[in-house]
Write a structure and sequence with these properties.
255 residues, alpha/beta, Rossmann fold, four-stranded antiparallel β-sheet, 39% helix, 27% strand
């Protein structure tokens, strides 16, 4: 199967000299075209920083990042890159401009991507994320958290990307809405043949969404495993075993 993403010996750091913080240390993994790959670990383990390095939003980095066979360098990303890769952020409240209507959010994105037939595309995008045309001229404050995240997903889809980077896409939402957004993402992946890289601290979400995953600790990838091993609790490293055990314990706590 063709390779969509390759991360090889990736180091990401912030600051210089004695103030330097190494957020990611020699991380390596590959993601096949059409695959859904998870990055899990405790807060501060470096998983979101990897996504930011891929998109050019992180600090200084070294190593190699390839997207669809093309290497990226530094922090600059070309228009072709953004046609291939889009990111959905954690907080739908922060990722949408409060004074921009849904129409403006989507139309500006489509114009930036050089798309034609803007009106028709906006209608299709809203339909694809389960929002009708009645939402087109609403503002973020008129939308629920789940509706905002649907708009954010529509904005990411506007470029017709192949790879979606999902940074805790449901963690800021009510539990009742989380499953709806995850199911929407699963449907979109199947319909559009998308590749996902999903960051999450919730192992149940990763077990539902991802074919494979990497477990991170202190900026390092300590283990990779397939979905079946995650579901069976069959980790090989002590840290990953403890992480799975803690997750199981948490889920079994009485409400």
């Amino acid at each position: 199967m063709a390779q969509m993403l390759k991360v090889d010996a990736l180091n990401v750091w912030f600051g210089e000299a004695h103030e330097r913080v190494d957020a990611v240390k020699s991380a390596s993994f590959t993601v096949a075209k059409g695959e859904s790959f998870g990055l899990v670990g405790e807060s501060g383990s470096g998983k979101s920083t990897i996504l930011r390095a891929i998109t050019g939003l992180a600090g200084s980095w070294s190593g190699r990042i390839e997207v669809a066979g093309e290497a990226v360098h530094g922090r600059h990303r070309s228009r072709a890159f953004h046609k291939t890769v889009q990111m959905v952020f954690q907080d739908p409240y922060a990722s949408l401009h409060p004074r921009h209507s849904v129409d403006r959010v989507l139309s500006e994105t489509l114009h930036l991507q050089g798309m034609d037939q803007i009106d028709a595309r906006i209608t299709r995008l809203l339909d694809s994320v389960g929002l009708g045309k009645g939402f087109r001229f609403r503002y973020p404050h008129q939308l629920s958290g789940g509706q905002r995240q649907r708009v954010a997903i529509a904005r990411a889809l506007a470029a017709e990307p192949q790879l979606l980077l999902l940074d805790e896409p449901t963690s800021a939402l009510d539990v009742s809405v989380q499953a709806e957004i995850l199911n929407l993402l699963s449907d979109l992946r199947k319909e559009r043949g998308l590749t996902f890289v999903m960051v999450s601290h919730d192992l149940a979400v990763v077990a539902h969404m991802c074919d494979r995953l990497a477990v991170m600790r202190g900026g390092e990838v300590v283990e990779e495993m397939p979905q079946a091993s995650l579901r069976a609790g069959a980790a090989t490293s002590d840290y990953a075993r403890n992480l799975l055990a803690a997750s199981e314990s948490y889920r079994r706590e009485p409400v």
